[in-house]
Design a protein that fits this description.
about 0% strand; mainly alpha; about 90% helix; elongated; about 55 residues; 2 helices; single chain
Length: about 55
């Protein structure tokens, strides 16, 4: 996994986690769902890069 892609995945996960927590705190279900979606997208991006790395070797 390239360093840039790894950082992008981790940043997306962190942003989603913060957005989800904020949505839960203020009781906004839409923001909570958006945060969870961003977090999941970050996890998927990281998994994709890990798979690409596995096939490089």
């Amino acid at each position: 996994m390239t360093a840039g892609e790894k950082a992008k995945a981790l940043a997306e996960q962190a942003k989603g986690k913060a957005k989800k927590a904020m949505g839960q705190k203020v009781g906004n279900e839409r923001v909570t769902a958006e945060g969870q979606a961003e977090k999941s997208t970050g996890h998927a991006r990281q998994a994709k890069e890990n798979i690409k790395d596995a096939f490089k070797h």
